[in-house]
What we know:
Number of strands: 16
Radius of gyration: 28 Å
Helix content: 25-40%
Number of domains: 3
CATH class of the largest domain: Alpha Beta
Largest sheet: 5 strands, parallel
Shape: elongated
Low-confidence stretches: 398-402
CATH topology of the largest domain: Rossmann fold
Strand order of the largest sheet: 11-12-15-10-16
Number of helices: 21
Structural class: alpha/beta
Amino acid sequence: MISLRRCSLNAATIHGVEAVPVQVEVAISQGIPGFAIVGMPDAAIQEARERVRAALRACGFSMPVEKVLVNLAPGSLPKCGSGFDLPIALGILVATKQIDMCDLRHALIVGELSLEGSIRPISGLFAYMMCARDTGIPVICPKANDTGIHIDGVEVTFAASLAQFRDKIFCLPCERTVKDDACIADYGEIAGNGVAKRAMQIAAAGEHGILLMGPPGSGKTLLATCLPSILPRLNKEQCLECARIHSVAGLDVASIVAGYRPFRSPHHTASQAGLVGGGRHVRPGEISLAHNGVLFLDEIAEFRPSVLQSIRQPMESGSITITRADDITNMPARFMLVAASNPCTCGYYGDDTIACTCTPGQVHSYQNRIGGPLLDRIDMFLEVRRSSFDDLSGNTSSSDMPMCSSDMYQRVVACRSFARRRSRSCESDRGASLHRLFSVCNLSDCSMGFLRHAARMHVLSARALVRVLRVARTIADMDQSVDVKQEHLAESLVFRVGRKSFNA
């Protein structure tokens, strides 16, 4: 009779930004000695055979000399990552009766083994924990630096070494105090630029995309960098969602755990896969890493046009779908786009003091690199001027605009709170149809006539009208006004039709 010993444990694999449950089935039978792993494993999983062998011996366990077969089910799902080391090793130990099955059968197990048997942290720990929460089982995993947030309904057991499973002595989970010590630039450090600060405040209050254009040294990058200081903190569910994405990408989640919104600033040499996601095993790109936060594209005209146009659809849908011949991956990508650019190659087109050396054709060509379809999806356009010496030295009298981030933050929070009370729901006006926007704006006859005249004069498309009404609705919310008035529409139109002044 052929002796067959089996064991089945729970694991998971990363698919996009989510962890998908996987069954690790181990069968040990008589036959030609060998160690095989099937079920569409990648190279990292195939290499687990050597790591598992060395780790078992280093911890005082014996590796069976019979035929060892590991099946990762379902077999049609591609598996990736080194997180299968621990469940494979434990499956072998249970099948050979070297350890008990107790507490392992109904747990999600992940971890990478070293050759000495210690268990190393892996990327995507938050995704595994959320998978365990959805399936209602505990997690056995290595302790990592990004476990400082508690996920309700998930029981976590931390293991540091394979040898601990012999004596069942594990690290006790503990709550790590998250230090709120993030260093964020403050708008109070920016001299002058009152109109620009007002525009950034409106953009933050309504999650509006904004394009800043101006000569070098006008403060475009600093204005964008200060934006996180006036954005509301992430709530618990948003925090978990963002932490999962950053964890899958192998990035530090300390600021996310502290509640700060992501701020991603990719270099203009970024590839399309780097921006929207991709790769052999699809990983999140910059637009997904900026989910619930800000995507800052500095020198946006220097990005390759094909790369820029790839973010058009995610800007409206709030998600990105990566389609491959054998797989379709959906990832969240609800971000606030902030872009900055020089007006021309030399940077001084339209400057008051330094003459531009570019020809009209060069200016037109440079600005057209951004592309009309993408510009049409940006809500606000602002021409940033360089501050005067008196502004920089503080010799001018201050206006009634809030100058520091703390004051601007309070106004942004108050605006969003008023918007929630006004709509009596958590639904945002972002993505609302033109018909719904007309309804929530509640325009008077005079305001409707003003908007009709502006639409004809500036040849506003339906999408442009949506952008104008959304920004006007935000400005009215900042004034705690239920109705959108003519002055709100006028300010919104200034930020919209300002785009025309960019064109040569």
